[in-house]
Amino acid sequence: MQISDDGCFGGCGLAALEARAKRELELLSYPGRDWVLPREAPDGSKALNVLVIGGGQGGVAVAAKLGLERVSGVRVVDANPDGQAGPWVTFARMITLRTPKHVSGPDLEVPALTVRAWYEAQHGEGSWDTLGLIPKETWNDYLCWVRRMFGVDFSPQTRAGAIHYDPRSGLFRVPLSSPAGEQSVWARRVVLATGIEGSGDWAVPAIIEQALPKERYAHTRWPIDFSALKGKRIGVIGAGASAFDNASVALESGASEVHLFFRRKRLVTVNPYRWAEFVGFLKHHADAPDDQRWRFVQQIVRMGQLPPADTFRRASEHPGFHLHPGCGVDRVVATEHGISLSAGDQSYDLDFLIAGTGFVTDLSRRVELGELEGKLARWKDVYTPPAERANADLERHPYLGSHFEFTPRSSEDAFVRYVFNYTFGSWLSMGFGGSSISGMKYSVARIVAGITKSFYTEDLEQYFQALERFDTEEFKVE
Ligand SMILES: Cc1cc2nc3c(=O)[nH]c(=O)nc-3n(C[C@H](O)[C@H](O)[C@H](O)COP(=O)(O)OP(=O)(O)OC[C@H]3O[C@@H](n4cnc5c(N)ncnc54)[C@H](O)[C@@H]3O)c2cc1C
Asked: Are 150 and 60 in contact (CB under 8 A)?
């Protein structure tokens, strides 16, 4: 337990911690000058310097870090109501985070803004030591607090549409829809922090979609009325954490039995994400050559995803829970009163199916990229892996520059370098950057360094002229 001279951190309350945080930000405030040169938009308004689309942990951290780097004119928009950004209090059905509590990130290395300091300030001495994993609601509260402490300009219930580039002004026009109506904003740079599925979309296998009416299945991302599953026989497809979370909620809501089907011969029990949590990979995967980046990420994909231990226990402790390894689903039929499903040469009669099948990476599915996606380089445009490492999903990943910026398929579209991808789709290029707490400590600094570099290098001439004009005398010579 860190107890400072004035006895802060240990249960002395949030107010004292907030005062300490403000003090630390003040101590770290060099250089203090706003420096990004303003732009007037074609409609006469002052263009934003950066529009951040998505107000989850990623978007807020990028905006906060830009603030610390004295970039003004940064606005974050999020489609969800205030306090409901991301999965934490919307569709996540886990009890706690899956990541260990010591993983930091949104604090931007300001000690008083760490989740531990915030937790201890409220729950007192020793509270952190007795905390296991962080409850998801607690994490969400922490993210809202950090956002407030960094003073991020945040607009909830505001959905961004297709990003439009205006070559005459060199600016992006982005339509925003909110309860207040439709408006357009102009920005010099755009950051996509639209979530884990932000470079594609959640995906229901065609074998389900084509066979069943909508009322007989759902994806783990969708709202599900679990009370309606009481006494029902449920099938869950997939063996990742969300598949197990949804199986547990169905059983806890009174489902009579849950059958979880997955293709691998046995459940994955080794988590490559834990291996990856060291400075080398987190900070420098993006600096490795293409073939090495592909090799590492493909190996992580091969190793597979798993439910955290307590998530596995939560489901498997139920007498109604049935695990079916080596059971790829090969037939789904709607019957008069339910579903007939075949997997691993067995057939099962079920009432409802839950697809724990995650998301696919496919930029053409993103509304925000409607006008741009055809111009954006993918890995398949740049790198051909050896046959034994072929992977269709990885090929579709955006081939990003060294600071999360998109790269163009053709040099005439160089402007796409002013749009930054801070979603999970960045991981082949950047490692654990967007959409994972594990990668935030290094990825936020990298994307922000890319944005500030782009401002400085774009306006070098103006900065030189300002230097030439600079005539503030240090002293007078009489
Ligand atoms: C169920 C679940 C559990 C997870 N658990 C963990 C975990 O324990 N540890 C971990 O490290 N990672 C976890 N992750 C992965 C990742 O950390 C989270 O997905 C996290 O929410 C990513 O943060 P983000 O800011 O990138 O995206 P989000 O938190 O998803 O925020 C993106 C926001 O963008 C908004 N948005 C999207 N499109 C638009 C648009 N066009 N206009 C305006 N707003 C838009 C969305 O409304 C959303 O609020 C989990 C993911 C899921 C789905």
From this structure: yes
Radius of gyration of the chain (CA): 24
Residue nearest to atom 33 of ligand 1 (CA): 54
CA 341 to ligand 1 center in whole angstroms: 32
307: its two tokens: 């439910």
Q: What is residue 3's predicted lDDT score, i.e. its pLDDT?
A: 46
Q: What pLDDT does 12 receive?
A: 62
Q: What is the spatial distance between Cα 66 and Cα 456, in angstroms, rounded to a whole number?
A: 14
- The maximal CA–CA distance of the chain, rounded, in angstroms, is 100
pLDDT category of residue 7 using cuts at 50, 70 and 90: very low
Query: Separation of 197 CA from ligand 1 center, angstroms?
Result: 8
Q: Which atom of ligand 1 is nearest to the CA of 80?
A: 47
Percent share of the chain, pLDDT over 70: 97
Going by the DSSP 8-state scheme, the letter that residue 56 receives in this structure is: S
pTM for this prediction: 0.96
Q: Residue 346 C-alpha to ligand 1 middle, in angstroms?
A: 37
Host H or E run for residue 349? strand 346-350
Domains and CATH numbers, the chain: 31-99+134-199+361-462 (3.50.50.60), 204-269+306-357 (3.50.50.60)
Peptide bond preceding 31 in cis form (omega within 30 of 0): yes
Cβ 437 vs Cβ 276: under 8 Å: no
Of ligand 1's listed atoms, the one at least distance from the Cα of 85 is 49
Distance 193 CA to ligand 1 centre (A): 8
Mutate to test the pocket of ligand 1, among 57, 365, 421 (most ligand atoms within 8 A of CB): 57
Contact 319, 307 (CB under 8 A): no
Distance CA 323, CA 269 (A): 14
Q: How far is the CA of 228 from the centre of ligand 1 (A)?
A: 27
In the chain, the amino acid numbered 64 is: A
H helix intervals, 234-318: 241-252, 272-276, 279-284, 290-303, 309-316
* Residue minimizing CA distance to atom 53 of ligand 1: 87
Residue in 66, 2, 62 with CA at minimum distance from that of residue 34 = 66
Cα first-last separation, the chain: 58
Which residues does a 6 A CB cutoff place in the pocket of ligand 1? 53-59, 77-80, 85-87, 92, 97-99, 159-160, 193-196, 242, 368, 434-438
Using alpha carbons only, what angle is made at residue 458 by residues 457 and 461, rounded to the nearest 5 degrees? 85
